[in-house]
Amino acid sequence: MKPGKFPELIKLAASAAGMDATLSRRGFLMLSACAVSSLTALGLCEALGAGAPLVILDNARGMILADPSRCVGCQRCELACTEFNDGRAQPSLSRIKIGRAMNFGPEGPTGGPAMQGTWGNGLVVQSVCRQCPHPVLCATACPENAIQADPKTGARVVDARRCVGCRLCQRACPWDMITFDEDRQKASKCFLCNGKPKCVEACPSGALRFVPWRDITREGRAGGPVLSALPAAKARACVECHTPSRKKSSAR
After folding, report:
1. Which is nearest to 81 in space by CA: 103, 98, 57, 105?
2. Residue 77 class from Cβ within 10 Å (0-12 exposed, 13-18 middle, 19+ buried)?
3. Which residues touch 108 (CB under 8 Å, ≥6 apart)?
4. Alpha-carbon distance 69 to 219, whole Å?
5. Largest CA distance in the chain
6. Burial status of residue 207 (CB atoms within 10 A of its CB: 0-12, 13-18, 19 or more)
7. Using a CB cutoff of 8 Å and minimum separation of 24, what contacts does 16-20 make?
8. How far apart are CA 139 and CA 100, in angstroms?
9. Residue 53: what are its φ and ψ, rounded to 5°?
10. Which one, out of 34, 82, 234, 241, has a CA that is 20 to 30 A from the CA of 182?
């Protein structure tokens, strides 16, 4: 970006946020500071075109709930997932993640005295898709709108016909629950097996349950750093929806 163009982009961002009429010098400086960490990451400065689509997905009607205290680490759920969805026994492609936390827990070998897994306190922590409510990060990040809600279950599902293998959804998920098939160059994620999750059926210890949906996105820690990947075509719509000044003006 050219240095002389930055102030102009800040003013455009302020205008998109409904601040154009009252932007003082102090406000300009504050917005400039925020822009370094937030607006740039969101790609907002490149997203001020008109007619951006606003896609809001309804909540899923069910979800998989995991109980680590019952998990024995057999990984039958991973095999059941890939055999049903991919026609092959390949745990690395599973939409439920057991193996990656089996030895050391979600924190990895650096977990210290609180380390879980077979090398820690023995607790095997399963990772399952939370079927996030709006804004669905993986769906928002997808530039091809390849992640949509299944009409039957409401589960967020990747349409392989639209997926171009860019992996932005994988980078956007805070819990790293997007699976990527290197052979097909396609992303995939849990879609609840059309309402009858095979991982739940295969679990011998009752460590997995299919229950009515609730928001668990604030439970547990994120798996790692997340790339704030927001396509330009969606950024303006998101700003208009989630900026407080926009909400107030729309309510009048």
Report:
1. 98
2. buried
3. none
4. 16
5. 64
6. buried
7. 16/44, 16/48, 16/236, 16/239, 16/240, 16/243, 17/239, 17/243, 17/245, 17/246, 18/243, 18/245, 18/246, 18/249, 19/245
8. 24
9. -75, 140
10. 234
Which tokens is 175 given? 């819990």
Confidence of residue 35 (pLDDT cuts 50, 70, 90): very low
149 φ, ψ to 5°? -85, 130
165-220, pLDDT tens digit by residue?
999 999 999 999 999 999 999 999 999 999 999 999 999 999 999 999 999 998 87
| H or E segment and range at residue 149 | strand 147-149
Is residue 4 classed as helix, strand or coil in its secondary structure? helix
pTM summary value:
0.69
State in words which class domain 62-212 has: alpha beta
Neighbour-count burial of 153, counting CB atoms closer than 10 A to its CB (0-12 exposed, 13-18 middle, 19+ buried): buried
Helices and strands of the chain, counted as H and E runs: 9, 6
pLDDT digits (tens, 9 = 90+) for 73-112: 999 999 999 999 999 999 999 999 999 999 999 888 887 8
Q: Where are the domains of the chain?
A: 3-47+230-251, 62-212
DSSP code per residue over 153-198: T--EEE-TTT--S--HHHHH-TT---EEETTTTEEE---GGGGS-H
Cα separation, 188 vs 170, in Å, equals 9
